[in-house]
Amino acid sequence: MLGEAGLGFDTVSALTTNEEDVDNLIDIAGSAARVELFAAEAVQRADLVVCASHSFAETATVLRAINDSEKAPVVVIMASDAPSDAGHAVVEGINLESIPAPIMLCPAASVVLVSQLVHGLAELPLTALTATTLQPASTFGQEAMNEVFAQARSLLTFDGKTPTEVLGRQIAFSTALAPPNGDHERQKQLSALLGGSSRTSLQTLRAGSFHGVGISAALQFADPIASDKLRAALVALGPQWNLEPDGNCESTVDRADTAIASIELRHTDQTDHAFVWIAADNLIRGSARNAVSIVEGWLVSQRT
Questions:
Q1: Quick one: pLDDT band at residue 3, thresholds 50, 70, 90?
Q2: Positive or negative torsion for Cα 99, 102, 107, 111
Q3: How many CB atoms lie within 10 A of CB 280?
Q4: Most Cβ neighbours (<10 Å): which of 152, 193, 264, 280?
Q5: What are phi and psi of 178, to 5 degrees?
Q6: Residue 280 pairs with which residues in a beta bridge?
Q7: Are strands 103-106 and 126-135 parallel, antiparallel or unpaired?
Q8: Is the residue at 273 inside a domain?
Q9: Domain of 128?
Q10: Measured between alpha carbons, how far is residue 150 from residues 83, 94, 141, 146 in Å?
Q11: Once rounded to an integer, what is the mean pLDDT over residues 272-283?
């Protein structure tokens, strides 16, 4: 269940074909509300519009309909390739309490996780972070996940028919550099969220995984720091993050019910740099969970 049920909305419009998404929206809007799969007429009647799409281009029709609407609904856009100027980037734990309506942008999982990490370590102070992230197929939707599966099957059976229509190349059992313009947009979102508190550099690799998000990051601090203090700051990120013993960064697949991002830390006591590895899930702890938090936060704000 998402949030508290029965908040009295007349209409909630969703750009989704997932029945579970619709059921969850009914839960938060109230059983009497109309939850309609996207149509221009529905958007013009809606209080809240959720655009969950693997391509920002697919939201263009939604935004045009909103511009024609007299009701001016609140919009949450979740698309991994959304440009930074599409809306106000919102991340749980950073700016969720002061949600800027009417158009809110849920960033990609890598931006969500890196911004939460940098924000949590800023007071140490953290001065710079350089990270490489793995972008899973679920970022691009169900068709991309189907293609990764078909690619793996083709490679394992040696049939010579590896499909690439959705992803553009073979990434099953492999990785590929993401287009540089995507990293540029994610960098701009990080800067907007963090306000320039730390220098961040982000490189994205597309990985042949379905939902898993991996982040490898080098951290630079202003001064030498005690390992105990650094570990305490990582623990303070919250119960959704789990700091693993050295050499034991546990797979999030094994812990899916706990909504945890696992962190492994490598740091020599009283030095000014460290390395972290993060294993997370795009659906549980990444972009999808953040989108849910945005909706919940906005609903709470309407009741106060």
A1: very low
A2: negative
A3: 27
A4: 280
A5: -75, 155
A6: 213
A7: unpaired
A8: yes
A9: 110-282
A10: 30, 39, 15, 6
A11: 86
